[in-house]
Amino acid sequence: MSRLIQARFSLSRFSSVASSRNVRFLSTESNKTDEPFKVEEAETVNMPPLPTEKLLVLGGNGFVGSHVCKEALDRSLTVASLSRTGRSSIQDSWANSVIWHQGNLFSTDSWKDALKGVTSVISCVGGFGSNSHMYKINGTANINAIRAASEEGVKRFVYISAADFGVVNYVLQGYYEGKRAAETELLTRYPYGGIILRPGFIYGTRRVGSMKVPLGVVGSPLEMILQRAKPLSQIPLVGPLFTPPVNVTAVAKVAVRAATDPVFPPGVIDVHGIIRYSQQRSPVDVVQLFLLKRETGRIRVFENDHILKRCSSF
Fold it and tell me: Hey, which residues does 270 pair with through a beta bridge?
C-alpha cells in the first residue's frame, strides 16, 4: 500500500477582468494550464491484511444450511460447516470451498476445534420426531452450541428458529418448546449479537436422494398472496396459519447478513422482517455499488475486497 506523504498542488492564479457584457478569467502566467498535482515523495508501507471473517454453519449440509453456505461463499467469507455426517453429498463446485467438520453437538469435545478462528455462527439445526426427541434436537443441541460459541468468544450467533403456528404449536409441543428454550439462551448469552429468524414454511428446490423437488411451485404464489394478507395473521387461534412462506435464498441472505453486519439489530426477526431485509441492500452491497472514481471523464465502479470489508463495519 502506498501512502501519500507530501503532495503539492500547482495551481494557477486567476485575476478577473470585468467587461460591460461579460467576465473573463485570465491566468497570471502566460497561457499555462492547471498542472496535475505532483507527488514529491511516496513511501511503501507494509500493512498486515485485514482479518477475514470466518462463519461456522451448524447443519450446513441440510436444505437451509447448504444455501447459507453458498450465500456466505458468494460474499467472500471463509465458511465452515458442522454436522453429524460431515461433508455434504452435494456435488456443486461451491461445496469444495467449504471446510467440512463432523461432530456431535451433544459432545462439545467432538467439535470444539471447529470453533477455532470463528467470528460468527449460524445454526440451522432442527428436526422432528417424538416430543422428547424434538426438544432435544431443537432445544438442547442448540443451547449447547450457543454456550460453546459464547465461551469461545464468538462475536455473533444467528439461530434459524420457526414462526408460531397457533394450534400447531400444541401438536408439535416438543418442537416449539425446544425452539423457544434455545431462543431464551441465545438472548441471554448474546444480548447484542444474537439474532433469531422466525420463518414459516421455507420453500425452494429440495434434494431427496437423486431427485429435486421444486417446492417453489407452491411456495412462491402463496408468499405473494399471504404477504398482502398480513392483517389476517392477527386473528386469534387461526391467524398464524396465514403466515406467508419464504424462499430459502431469502432466509440464507438475511442469516448471513445478520451474522456479519455489526449494525444488524439483535433480537427476533419474523417472517415479514425476513422478507423485508432480503429485499434490501446490505451496507457492503451499497459500498460496492457506490465506490466510484472519476477517471478521464467517466465513472468507474471499484470492487476492492479490502475496502469493502472495512467499510462494511460502518
Answer: 198
Distances (CA, A) of 58 to 7, 34, 129, 179, 248: 52, 60, 20, 15, 16
Q: Which residues face 194 on adjacent strands? A: 157
The residues that bridge with 160 in the sheet, in sequence order, are: 197
Report the chain's terminal Cα–Cα distance, integer Å.
Answer: 22
Distances (CA, A) of 25 to 12, 17, 35: 11, 7, 17
Q: For the ranges 110-119, 199-208, 209-218, which has the lowest average pLDDT?
A: 209-218
Range of the domain at 288: 282-314
Digit-coded pLDDT (tens) for 159-212: 999 998 877 778 889 999 999 999 999 999 999 999 999 998 898 766 665 566
Query: CA-CA-CA-CA torsion for 200, 206, 208, 210, nearest 10 degrees?
Result: 180
Distance CA 33, CA 69 (A): 55
**CATH number assigned to the domain comprising residue 251:** 3.40.50.720
Nearest to 98 by CA among 126, 62, 56, 63: 56
Q: How far is CA 226 from CA 61, 215, 230, in A?
A: 30, 16, 7
One domain, residues 115 and 153: yes
CA distance 7 to 268: 51
Helical H segments across the chain, by residue range: 63-74, 131-135, 141-152, 168-171, 173-189, 216-227, 248-260, 271-278, 283-290, 305-311
Count of C-beta atoms within a 10 Å radius of residue 240:
19
Could you tell me the sign of the dihedral formed by the alpha carbons of 106, 110, 116, 121, in that order?
negative
In single-letter form, the type of residue at position 207 comes to: R
